[in-house]
Specification:
By secondary structure, the chain is α/β, with parallel strands linked by helices. The protein is built from six helices and twelve strands. The chain has helices at about 55-65, 85-95, 120, 155-160, 175-190, 210-220; strands at about 5-10, 30-35, 70-75, 100, 130-135, 135-140, 190-195, 225-230, 235-240, 245-250, 260-265, 270-275. Strand 7, helix 6 and strand 8 form a beta-alpha-beta unit.
Length: about 290
Amino acid sequence: MKRRDFIRITLPIALAGRAAGATSETPDLTFGVIADPQYADVETHGSRFYRNSLAKLEHAIADLNTRPLDFTVTLGDLIDRDFKSFGSVMPIYEKLKSRHFPILGNHDFSVEDGEKGKVLAALGMEKAYHSMVIKGWRFLFTDGTDDAIWRYPASDPRTLAAKKPYRNSGICAEQMAWIAEELAAAKESGQRAIVFNHYPAFPEKGPNITNSKELVALIGKHGNVAAYMNGHHHAGNYAEKGGCHYVNFKGMVETEKETAYATVSCYSDRLVIEGMGLEPGRSLGA
């Protein structure tokens, strides 16, 4: 398992916290990141080795369990298709010593219509989106699938609404208002925020969430979002806008043997991402 150099992302001074006991050498907290395992018991297609994701997950979780993590997030697409795939993936995640928070991805709903309503329970999720505060940081686990044509059964009114105009991803108005409230509350409390979603939101060219411009504008308006982290685009990406770092983590399903996952350490003045396998080891803003 190849471990890369740290990615160093320097946060704007305005976001630099004053957490008790935190120094430039001591992170406030650390969490694990996995993106797009996309397991299915199907043949390899192109560079996607679906069956191999189980072994990659086993190795990644064994490694993450050796680290003092506050939690682990999976940025969507735990499966590629078929509801039965959850039965193979979730027992591996149950070995995690840290708390696990999955994000909903498009492939997680590549199941029969009658099974779509069971996806959240299969993932161990009570809500499609939620937030939590840890050590002066507010984390928003958002849902980029709640305004998509494939999220609900074909006869569901929300599916019909997503046809005009056609939307294959999206954050509904209710959730967007919730995000605004959460970011405002974080700012009032002097907290920095990190937003998780399955889909990219920036830069503009790419397989972005349908209402990415609205989301990016909302993030920029509040000015206290240190990073927006996502999967979906397996090649990965990075961009910065208005003091927010948009980090697209690479997909684990890609390639036959190489893996991809990371840990993120949150400091008072920066984020440090340690990438494993395919996850790049570049230094940014050091």
